[in-house]
Amino acid sequence: MDARVRLLTPEGIGGIAVVELTGSAAPELVQRCFRGPRGASTTVEPRRIYYGHIVDRDETLDEVLVTCVRAADGAIVEINCHGGVIPARRVIRHLVEQGAVENGIAEVVTGRKLKRLEREVLGQLVRARTQLAAEVLLVQLSGKLRAELEGIVADPDDEDARRRIAALRATYTYGRRFVDAATVVITGAPNVGKSTLANGIVGRERSIVHHLPGTTRDAVTSVASLDGLPCIVVDTAGLRQATGEIERIGVERAMQKAASGEVIVWVFDHSRGVTDDEVSYLNVLRKRRLVPVINKIDLDGPVEASQIRRLVGAEVQRTCALTGEGTEELGRRIFTCLVGSEVPPRDSAVVTTREVAAALDEAAREVQSGSRGGCLFDGSLLA
Question: Which of 199, 300, 334, 364 has its CB surrounded by the most CB atoms within 10 Å?
Answer without folding.
Answer: 334
